[in-house]
User: Which sequence fits this backbone?
């Protein structure tokens, strides 16, 4: 199991985040915000296989790439599309879905699930390509707990931040998992081989038996002998919000020592008045959040275009590093 991520977009331009989660048996693809032109930075196969699209909010600079995503997935047969976002996400995206002429879709596959994350509840809706997206089917309203999505491999939690409007921050956490321990395998004297796949695959009943080197074992016995528990990895996506009121205590609790935080830092610490006016963060504020929450790495992104890459970026990073040394820009920026 592992989490791999890529920040989409250039320094000083609109940005987004793509996350791959390898569960050991399948790959999950998560997209955070849908910025114009940025999906070109991914392989078509990744765009066509996004399992979940999460919007922080629906300002144009975070959502104008939606049509490209929509065109590639509108009649996807392999799996439904899931979209999460703040209040009115289902309303706004429904307008996008309805914004074309659908007389030729026939019985095309395509199921779109859109969920609005509200203060106290999450409301789930469904749309069908074969209906030309005309009907908004309400599925259910569930009380909102921190976790908005959970499967066998990972959870996604949401926090509502303040960008004048609600802006949602997300935390993805892999579940702890069992894997073959090399030392234990060596000590057992058993030869490595394809049979190890069955030991790791919990969809196979542990009472099943396999024979290795003429000796027969149950999978349960092999699992007890060879597996070791590993801690799942975690990554958070935080963008477009103000640092005030209870932002810091709320994020400290929410992030809870996660591995990596990808966090906006629109402004230099010297321009804190602009950050407050525009409901954004400074470098120092992003660093203070990372420090207080005890996270491992802070990755700064979504920086205002007022700063020049060659002249200002080093100083901006230093501002954050003074407070939280383990701060970097996305590796793709070569900053
Ligand atoms: Zn923004």
Assistant:
């Amino acid at each position: 199991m592992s989490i791999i991520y890529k920040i989409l977009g250039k320094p000083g331009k609109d940005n987004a985040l793509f996350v791959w989660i390898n569960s050991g048996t399948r790959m999950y693809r998560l997209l955070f915000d849908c910025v114009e032109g940025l999906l070109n930075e991914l392989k078509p196969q990744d765009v066509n296989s996004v399992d979940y699209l999460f919007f922080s909010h629906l300002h144009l600079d975070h959502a104008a790439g939606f049509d490209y995503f929509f065109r590639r997935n509108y009649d996807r047969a392999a799996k439904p599309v899931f979209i999460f976002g703040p209040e009115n996400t289902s309303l706004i995206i429904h307008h996008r879905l309805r914004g074309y002429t659908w007389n030729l879709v026939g019985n095309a596959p395509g199921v779109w699930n859109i969920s609005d994350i509200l203060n106290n509840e999450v409301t789930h809706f469904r749309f069908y390509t074969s209906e030309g997206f005309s009907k908004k089917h309400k599925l259910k309203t569930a009380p909102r707990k921190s976790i908005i999505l959970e499967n066998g491999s990972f959870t996604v939690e949401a926090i509502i931040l303040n960008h004048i409007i609600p802006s949602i921050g997300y935390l993805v956490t892999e579940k702890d998992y069992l894997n073959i321990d090399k030392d234990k395998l060596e000590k057992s004297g058993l030869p490595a081989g394809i049979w190890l796949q069955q030991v790791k695959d919990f969809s196979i009943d542990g009472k099943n038996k396999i024979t290795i080197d003429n000796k027969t074992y149950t999978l349960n016995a092999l699992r007890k002998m060879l597996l070791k528990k590993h801690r799942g990895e975690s990554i958070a996506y935080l963008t477009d919000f103000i640092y005030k009121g209870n932002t810091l205590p709320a994020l400290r609790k929410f992030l809870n020592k996660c591995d990596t935080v990808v966090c906006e830092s629109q402004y230099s610490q010297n321009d804190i008045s602009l950050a407050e006016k525009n409901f954004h963060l400074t470098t120092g504020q992003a660093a203070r959040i990372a420090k207080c929450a005890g996270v491992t790495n802070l990755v700064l992104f979504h920086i205002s275009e007022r700063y020049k890459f060659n002249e200002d970026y080093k100083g901006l990073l230093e501002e954050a590093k003074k407070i939280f040394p383990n701060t970097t820009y996305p590796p793709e920026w070569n900053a």
